[in-house]
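Sequence only, no structure available. Ideas?
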Amino acid sequence: MSILIKNGLMLSKENNLNYQGDILIENEKIKNIDQDLNVEAEQIIDASGCIVLPGLIDHHTHLYPFIKKGIPAESVCFSSGVTTAVDAGSSGCETYENVRNFLDYSRLGIKSYLNISSLGLTSLPNLENLDPKFYNKDKIKELFEKYKDELIGLKIRMSKNIVNELGFKPLEETIKIANDLSVPVMVHSTDPPGPIENIANLLRKNDVLTHMYQKSPFTILDNDKIDISIKNAREKGVVFEAADARLHFSFEICEKSLKENFLPDIIATDLTVFSMYQRPTAFSLLMQISKYENLGIPFEKIIKACTTTPAKLLGISDSVGAIKVGYLADIAIIKKEFTDVEFGDKPYKYEDKNLKSGKFVYNCMMTIKNGEMVYRNILF
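Reply:
I predicted one. Tokens follow.
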């Protein structure tokens, strides 16, 4: 199918596009970009008043059937302009192969972090076993060799109620395995067993500290300033991710961090069925984008955190994450709707929740994956 998108505001930091123009799509790829393309196409889309972006990348999700409480991937992602999603450690080495065959039938681009715990999160509501003596190093290595195009790194949740008396030993051993495999580690940092500097000091270039704006006894702040260990971690290339879900975000921590210009490298969701479409928290990636712009982060930097940066981390920046001739036609068309909206750092039922008012929200009008229209707003 050939598709001609006309009159949209194109914005891509990767190649500095920032003007109203047209995009021609043929045979799954972007064939031409110009300010006024007079060509024939099977579908002509008038994107006047809309923003045309690279397909968004949600770097932190939990997808069904990797986990029973995972989101229905294509329906949730495509309706939010997301064309690539990353499952953040739902499966472990003993469960991944049981469910990965659905990838063969998914049009959504999907990559996964493998949980260091052999059962991953499939044991929930029983917490995963993070005793390093039970890490199955041989099986983990086997899977990374077998599914090198699917698995991108290891995931570990470092909350004190999971690691208990093990402290930071599970992370230390996880990083040793990651070193052997030459892969990054994503670390869930909410409510760690000690100062967050213990995590930051262990992390390496391209490791991901997720839930960066969480509020627990140990945060990225020290006396309302960014902790020196966090600054040092960023300097050595640690990636900081805002993936807020229901309970991994604090307006207080976020706003104090933004005053020091400590912005997320990646903005994602950490969606499960518990946070999918739930107000006033994560809801969807477009709701996250709306929240962070309402908090004052420039739109261009937010979009970079949902396209260019995760694409590079995933090793797919040569084909997605930007609007370029020859790239795959993964495209999101969104519209800024001015309306009163409410954002929260916890669900309504929590007494200690904080709420903020916003003036606009982004709505997905169309999503194109590999040159195919996979979502279209009924009013577009």
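The mean pLDDT is 96.
Hope that gets you unstuck.
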